[in-house]
Design the sequence.
């Protein structure tokens, strides 16, 4: 029998409730997102990039309001090519 994660929100904070195996699967997805997400080709252009999704680890729900948990990334301002000169100027010691 497969274990599932169940998302719960409280005070605008997401909590994931589930077994150890379900958390291990989610941790593997988050590790892949952290390792490979910043290397996506569009991230240097300043676009938001889908890095991973935890939706497959959630408890199945046939309703139309099924939650989806996507891990997305947006580059920092200093990593954009347009702002590189401004970042270099602000990093210089004064």
Sequence:
């Amino acid at each position: 029998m497969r274990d599932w994660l169940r998302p719960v929100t409280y005070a605008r904070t997401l909590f994931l409730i589930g077994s150890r195996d379900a958390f291990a699967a989610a941790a593997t997805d988050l590790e892949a997102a952290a390792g490979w997400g910043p290397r996506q080709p569009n991230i240097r252009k300043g676009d938001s990039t889908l890095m991973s999704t935890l939706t497959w680890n959630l408890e199945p729900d046939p309703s139309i309001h099924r939650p989806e948990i996507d891990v997305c990334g947006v580059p920092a301002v200093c990593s954009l090519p347009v702002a590189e000169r401004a970042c270099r100027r602000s990093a210089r010691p004064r």
About this structure: Helices lie at 20-36, 84-91.
